[in-house]
Amino acid sequence: MSGRNKALGKAGEDEAAAYLKRKGYVIAARNYRAKVGELDIIAWQNPQMLVFVEVKTRTGLQYGKPAEAVNYYKRKNIIRTAQWYLMEKHLQGTCYCRFDVIEVYAMAGGAWECRQIEGAFET
Q1: Candidate CATH numbers 3.30.365.10, 3.40.1350.10, 3.40.50.300, 3.30.390.30; the one for domain 3-113
Q2: Over 80: is that where the pLDDT of 2 sits?
Q3: Which residues contact 105 (CB under 8 A, 6 or more apart)?
Q4: At residue 110, does pLDDT exceed 90?
């Protein structure tokens, strides 16, 4: 991944986290890494709902919608890493979980647009 793409991805994740905070979510972790994979954002929507968020940032649609990049293999990796997180934090059976994708669009003039797809996929 080029330095420009990494910077865009980081900025998109920052914007997605800010978007979730504005909606009242509490961020539990960002860029959580385990030996099985990485999760972009983990956030509590409420005390019973833990949301695992994959963030995809784009400057346009020339490569398709951002959520389309979350393919079968990426979803399986996210699920496996989420299971690891739940085990590590002793949260299995204590809360509901959901997998969301946030599409972040970098607009002209430095503006951002976020589109949250709640329940984008299931285990």
Answers
A1: 3.40.1350.10
A2: no
A3: 57, 58, 59, 66, 112, 113, 114, 115
A4: no
Q: Which residues pair with 69 in a beta bridge?
A: none
Under a CB-based contact definition with an 8 Å cutoff, are residues 90 and 98 in contact? no
The pLDDT mean for the chain works out to 94
Length of the chain: 123
Classify burial at 107, counting beta carbons within 10 Å of its beta carbon; exposed 0-12, middle 13-18, buried 19 or more. Answer: exposed
Model confidence pLDDT, tens digit, residues 32-82: 999 999 999 999 999 999 999 999 999 888 888 999 999 999 999 999 999
Specify the pTM. Answer: 0.93
Q: 20-31 as b/e, with b when 16 or more CB fall inside 10 Å?
A: beeeebeebebe
Answer whether 67's CB lies under 8 Å from 58's CB.
no
Query: Max alpha carbon distance in the chain (Å)?
Result: 45
Radius of gyration of the chain (CA): 14
